[in-house]
Design brief:
- By secondary structure, this protein is an alpha/beta fold.
- The protein has two domains: about 1-135 and about 345-430, Rossmann fold; about 155-345, Rossmann fold, CATH 3.40.50.
- It has helices spanning about 15-30, 45-50, 70-75, 100-105, 115-120, 135-140, 150-160, 180-190, 195-220, 235-245, 260-270, 280-285, 315-325, 335-345, 350-360, 385-395, 420-430, and strands spanning about 1-10, 35-40, 50-60, 80, 105-110, 130, 165-170, 225-230, 255, 270-275, 290-295, 310-315.
- The chain has a six-stranded parallel β-sheet with strand order 2-1-3-4-5-6, sandwiched between helices.
- Strand 1, helix 1 and strand 2 form a beta-alpha-beta unit.
- The two termini are about 35 Å apart.
């Protein structure tokens, strides 16, 4: 079994992998910290028997249930939760909040802002287990990171888009329209208000139907390229099927693309439109014109304060005017200023993470206590102590045969990629970051 400093678990390639690759390059070149990148859902079967990590980076940590094989095999590792979803609204707050003994007492937590750090403390996470660093995804719009991504001309050639037309990018987020009934019921069982769940589902379904009609109408005019990118967890075919139910004949200028990340498309586009997606915050950081589409009033469970800092579009005529004429990113300066002040105030959040992981590995940051075995040991039929049940299950747990492939959920259709592609990304990131060192680093004091 190979010892490694850090196992970096990622969930969604588009959201996380480039940041993970950049951190790996910085950590290994400047700190001598070894990092292995592993897909959290499909990589456990090989990783737990191949590596012995000192630190395990988690994409999220709500309960211990998501990480059973890792906890069973790597009990003594230090667990660090990146909390990739921190812009919570009332409708998903309970489901997306760390809960349970493991998450609250035995994990270090990464916070983008003091506001989120305060929220974690309110939920029972000790102050000394939280570090505030800012949002690493926002750094990708800054130099030198932004030079990594494909330019408009490259995207135009690859996806057969006219670079001379206005590009309208739509990173959709009608997630509640696509959740099956059993998923909605699980949210309710986790504490969500049934009325809130119904309100969010109905809003997303109605808004999706109306907005797709608007999109097809403006795309049919021929003056724009309208690029619609379904959210990572929504299968592309499911999204297309939903659109065809309301728009039987789809314009050639209306493109459904799941390739690339939102960053390439935001930087290459003229206008960014969406529902309540946090991609609009990224657009404001990139100094792009950005608007919220709400043909129906956004229900309270989905509404958050930053929505008041961005332009809202409520009618088809307003939508057409935005797509054909709107270019004033200055109206979103409040949103960009707010984002930079609250979630980019600690310097280079990507480099800081590489530095932080190195300090955790070296023991410079106090670790949470090792979790008790009973956390991942279900009651036994026999009167055995928890430590013995844990050891028996740890030794008996076996990965599938090497030639077998674990089931991949439709929500991860773009997230399991070949190791050769990851190596190519790392090589490119090394080139981008070759001569870069930030002028100032975080001192890594916990909250």
């Amino acid at each position: 079994m190979q010892s490694v400093d850090v196992i970096f678990l990622y969930e969604h390639v588009a959201r996380e992998l480039d940041i993970a690759c950049a951190i790996k390059c910085i950590a290994e070149q400047h700190y001598g910290t070894t990092i292995e990148l592993v897909h959290y859902a499909c990589g456990a079967y090989q990783a737990v028997d191949q590596f012995r990590p000192r630190v395990v980076v988690l994409p999220f940590c709500y309960t211990e249930r998501e990480y059973y094989p890792y906890l069973l095999k790597w009990r003594n590792a230090i667990y660090f939760n990146l909390n990739w979803e921190q812009m919570l609204y009332r409708g998903n707050r309970e489901a997306k909040t760390p809960r349970g003994v493991f998450a609250r007492e035995h994990v270090l937590h990464h916070a983008w802002s003091n506001h989120f750090a305060d929220y974690l403390q309110q939920k029972g996470i000790p102050k000394q287990h939280i570090v505030v660093n800012g949002n690493p995804a926002y750094m990708l719009y800054e130099k030198p990171y932004r030079s990594y991504f494909k330019q408009r001309a490259d995207l135009a050639a690859e996806y057969r888009l006219d670079p001379k037309k206005r590009w309208i990018f739509f990173p959709e987020n009608y997630n509640w329209a696509f959740y099956p009934d059993e998923k909605l019921q699980s949210f309710i069982s986790q504490g969500q208000d049934p009325q809130d769940v119904c309100a969010m589902r109905d809003f997303c379904r109605l808004s999706l139907e109306e907005v797709m009609k608007w999109c097809n109408a403006v795309a049919s005019q021929g003056d724009v390229e309208l690029i619609i990118r379904p959210r990572p967890a929504t299968p592309l075919n499911d999204f297309k099927s939903a659109v065809r139910q309301v728009v039987p004949v789809i314009s050639d200028s209306m493109h459904f693309v799941k390739e690339e990340s939102v960053r390439e498309w935001i930087m290459a586009s003229d206008v960014v439109i969406s529902s309540y997606s946090t991609s609009l915050i990224e657009a404001s950081i990139a100094n792009k014109a950005a608007v919220v589409l709400d043909p129906y009033p956004i229900p309270d469970p989905l509404r958050v304060d930053w929505h008041d800092l961005v332009v809202h579009i409520k009618t088809q005529s307003e939508f057409e005017d935005v797509c054909l004429n709107y270019a004033d990113a200055g109206e979103n300066s409040q949103l960009g200023q707010w984002a930079r002040a609250t979630m980019m105030a600690c310097g280079d959040a990507i480099w800081n993470l590489a530095d932080l992981l190195a300090q955790i590995v070296r023991g410079k940051i106090r670790r949470p206590p090792v979790f008790p075995r009973k956390i991942v040991t279900a009651p036994s039929r026999y009167p055995l102590p928890a430590w013995l049940v844990f050891e028996i299950r740890r030794m008996r747990w076996k990965a599938p045969e090497p030639n077998s492939t674990p089931a991949i959920s439709s929500g991860h259709e773009k997230d399991v990629i070949d190791t050769s592609e990851i190596k190519q990304r790392i090589t490119k990131w090394k080139q981008v970051l070759a001569d870069y060192v930030p002028s100032e680093l975080n001192s890594w004091l916990t909250v």
